[in-house]
Predict the structure.
Amino acid sequence: MKISVFCPTRGRKKLLPRGIDSLLNNASDKSNMEFIFRFDVDDISTLKHIMKYYNVEETSTETINHTFTWGSSRFKVINTFSKKHKVSMKFIYGKRHGYNLINKYNDEAMYISDGEYLVHWTDDFVLLDNDVKLKWDDVIREGDNQNFVFFFPLNPKWNPIQPVAFPRKFYEINNRCCPNVLDDWWYLELCKILPPDVPVIMDDWRVEHRAVWRTSDQDDTSSEGRCEWDANRENDVVGYEYYNLEEMENIKKYLKENPNTKRTTQRHNEKISKLNFDKGGGTGRWKR
C-alpha cells in the first residue's frame, strides 16, 4: 500500500528538512511512499534549496489544470527521485493563495497524490525517534483497504489534532478534503460523526511542534500568515468558509456503505470529542 505525505511550505529551508528527515529516518518501506511539497511561485529559492538538499533527480514535469470545489487552479509539478533517501518526491509551485486559504494548497497536493493513505504534515513538526518494531508507516499500512484516521499525538502535553493520516477516498468523495484553514480541527470534527473504530491513536509515534510563532525566531511565514489570519479570521477573509456538514455526511454515508472489516494494533473506540492523547503514553521511549 502506498502512502503519500503532503506538506505546503514557504521559506522554511531549515525547518522543513528536519521534519521530513524524521519521517524518512523512522520509515519501514520508502519504496511505497512519496513526499509532496507545495511552494509559492515567488518562493522558488526555497524549492531549489530543498531539491538540492535531497539530491533529487528530475524524472518529468507537468502542468496541472484542475477545477476544485473552490474553483480552478493551474500549477506546475516537478516529479523527482531523491538519491539521498531513495524515495519519490513531487515539487509543486504555483499561485500564492496565502495562509488563510492553505486548504487550497492541501487540495492541490492531494489531487496529484498516488497513495491510498495521505499524511497531512506541517513544516514545523518533527517525529520523535522510536525503536519500536512497528514503524509509523507500518501502522498506517494496517489500514490497507480500510478507512481509518490515524492521529499522531504531540509531545509534550497538548491536545494534538495534527498530523493525521486518512484515506485518499475522503478527498475524492468531495473533490477536496477540508473547506477551511483549520484542517486539523476538521479531522477531529469529522471523526465525531463517524463510527467509533475510525479514529486510531498512534501512541508510539509522537511529534514535537517546533513552532516559531510568537517566539524570537518567528519568521515571515508566521508573521504574514498566522498573525494576519488571527486578526482577520472572521472578518474580511475572502473565500473562507467553516465546516461543510453536507460534505462530512457524504463521508459518513460512504463509511456506512463500506464499513471497516478489521482493526489495527493501535487504540480504537476513543471518545473523540474528548480526546486525551496523553492517556496511555508517557513510556519515555521518545527522544529529541
Residues 220-232 form the longest helix (13 residues). The mean pLDDT is 86.
